[in-house]
Amino acid sequence: MLPFNTIEEAATFLGRNLTVAETLWFNYSAKKSDYYLYCHNILFLFLIFSVVPLPLVLVEMMRSLGFDKYKIQPKVSLSLSEMFQCYKDVMRMFVLVVGPLQLVSYPSIKMIRIRTGLPLPSLWEIVAQLTVYFMIEDYTNYWIHRFLHGKWGYEKIHRVHHEYTAPIGFAAPYAHWLEVLILGIPSFLGPAIAPGHMITFWLWIALRQIEAIETHSGYDFPWTPTRFIPFYGGADYHDYHHYVGGQSQSNFASVFTYCDYIYGTDKGYRYHKKVLKKLKEGSKIDGAQNGGSYYYPTQDLKSE
């Protein structure tokens, strides 16, 4: 709740007129408690998990219209009922674990001093903090993910997430309840180290979930803007990790590729891509000679 009753009081405190964004924020948040503002995350997560994967569902249903060429594992096809079942499983986890966790974790937000007042952060501040959050989450998530691929971690916890060997958007948060809790730690570390405004925190939670949905989409679209992000893994990169499955010791990173490169855990993926390139070149030659079709054998390789 803002400590001002009027915009004039807020302007006097700042020593300047409020910006348009600050005026909107004042009108919306002035009489709302910080706890109420924090709990917006529950609504945002519900909307993201429910709405963002829907275009991918439509694409899956319309693969025959030309989208099949973008499918990373083209031999795998899920029905509408199977995708809806995944959504129901995710929503059950949301209601039983994620939502309650959000409701009771507010003291930690106060402890690290996520602020809700004025002034609002500049665009540069928001971008800088989000970059730090993504880097910290990615590095921490990398090591937790590697641990979960150990014998005990995989059999007891992480195998649930790998039930989808060809991931779909709805399956991004599909996991064992304990994994959901554990992976909340990397997401919290960035804001704890570099605390900012509640708006930045909202954006962080939203963008991280949207990125996870894109990474688990199962489609490698050439027009996705994330292709322009340096060291970004993307759907093709993470899809390989799911395809190889439990024995995978490759592509652990959640967002970027630098950890896998530094620690040598992208060798299986790089070998896989090298073999695919040779097969694609060979299939083009055979196709030209024999009138055959282009062959992309993503599902036929499990090289590590």
UniProtKB/TrEMBL annotation:
Q: Which GO terms describe its cellular component?
A: membrane
Q: Which UniProt keywords apply?
A: Membrane, Transmembrane, Transmembrane helix
Write out the annotated subcellular location: Membrane
| Cited InterPro entries | Fatty_acid_hydroxylase, Sterol_Desaturase_Related
Q: Has keyword Aminoacyl-tRNA synthetase?
A: no
Q: Kindly name one Pfam family recorded for this protein.
A: FA_hydroxylase
The chain positions of domain Fatty acid hydroxylase read 131-265
* Source organism, top-level taxon: Eukaryota
What is the predominant subcellular site recorded for this chain? membrane
Question: Where does the chain cross the membrane?
Answer: 35-59
What is an annotated GO biological process for this record, any one? Answer: lipid biosynthetic process
Recorded GO molecular functions are: iron ion binding; oxidoreductase activity
The similarity comment for this entry is:
Belongs to the sterol desaturase family.
* Name of the protein this chain belongs to: Sterol-4alpha-methyl oxidase 1-1
What is the protein's species of origin? Hibiscus trionum
